[in-house]
Write a structure and sequence with these properties.
alpha/beta; Rossmann fold
Length: 297
């Protein structure tokens, strides 16, 4: 039987998603060892992109699984996480190594899908590009901790809601249950990889935009999704601050003034946080030079 040599370019599959959904656990399960740290604590765990090499199937095909930091991280903004992933994708694109598939993990335990998470879904779609979505598997996790009927109901909503996974599924992405109840999820993980490995390699939309079109991260479509909301939040916060100030100027009622002063304090704190995020963003704007250096321009 023909075997694949060690020097052969490996198939690459990246794993992305929010923090704590089980990305590193998935990779550890496939490799049947615990190379990657996982955390039971409330803090996010993976801070950098990490590659894990293994041999796949009877043919011993070289395979590279790419673990990524989770969105909604307890110590990094989503922009920071996107920047870390984008850097990795640019480097690998320039090294001539291409992805064969992407797994997006989502925990079925989440009782609500917040606006920030829905934004990550949209960002992820833009990161991949519509044409590549047939090489995307959306894997739901944590089935063992939710009542089956409830989990199935949530899964149905995830599939049918236009602000959740419906747009990606309509464009060819596949949604599967990654259940850990049987063999700790080993065969489930194998099925997902097996499905993705049938495809040829692809260029993600964000790779094309960063490398071929030489865009900077904030003006890629994925970057814009994250920035758009940030700018909108900033505008809303400033408008509300102005309105509160006007009300304060026009009322003499003691109780009302105390209430408004409290609200102003909260809004000022929120403005400070948004300001920090915008500063972070301009840091990534300067990455034009980082990518230019990388491109040798
Ligand atoms: N019960 C249960 N626990 C899970 C499942 N998937 C992951 N876990 C646990 O969830 C915790 C976090 O898992 P990780 O693999 O570190 O999650 P991650 O997505 O890599 O998180 P970040 O690195 O922070 O982005 C660990 O304690 C895992 O054992 C699952 O399907 N069911
Ligand atoms: Mg992790």
């Amino acid at each position: 039987m023909a075997t694949h040599s060690d020097t052969e370019t490996p198939a690459i599959i990246a794993v992305m998603g929010s923090t704590g959904v089980g990305k590193s656990t998935f990779i550890n399960t496939v490799t049947r060892n615990h190379t990657l740290p996982v955390s039971r604590a409330l803090n996010s765990c993976t801070k950098e992109v990490q590659e894990v090499r293994l041999k796949w199937g009877d043919e011993q095909r070289p395979l590279l699984l790419v673990d990524t930091p989770g969105f909604g991280d307890s110590s990094m903004s989503d922009t920071d996480v996107l920047r870390i992933i984008a850097k990795y994708l640019v480097k690998s694109h320039m090294a001539g190594t291409k992805l064969t598939g992407v797994i997006y993990m989502h925990s079925i335990i989440d009782r609500k899908v917040e606006g920030s998470t829905r934004r990550i879904f949209r960002m992820f779609q833009e990161l991949c590009g519509s044409r590549n979505l047939n090489q995307v598997v959306i894997a739901t996790t944590w089935w063992d901790k939710v009542d089956a009927p409830l989990a199935v109901e949530r899964e149905g909503q995830l599939c049918s809601d236009k602000t959740l996974f419906k747009p990606m599924l309509d464009l060819g992405a596949t949604m599967v249950r990654h259940e850990m109840r049987h063999d700790h999820g080993f065969s489930s993980a194998q099925n997902i990889l097996h499905y993705l490995l049938q495809y040829k390699t692809m260029d993600l939309k964000i790779q094309k935009q960063l490398v071929n079109e030489k865009r900077s991260l904030p003006v890629t479509n994925a970057g814009e999704v994250i920035n758009h909301d940030l700018m909108q939040n900033a505008r809303q916060c400033i408008d509300r601050l102005e309105a509160v100030q006007e009300e304060l100027n026009s009322t003499k009622d003691g109780a009302m003034r105390r209430f408004l002063l409290e609200e102003r304090k909260e809004l000022q704190a929120e403005k400070k946080v948004i300001g920090k995020q915008i500063k972070n963003l301009s840091k990534s704007l300067n990455e034009r030079s980082f990518f230019s250096r990388l491109l040798g321009l």
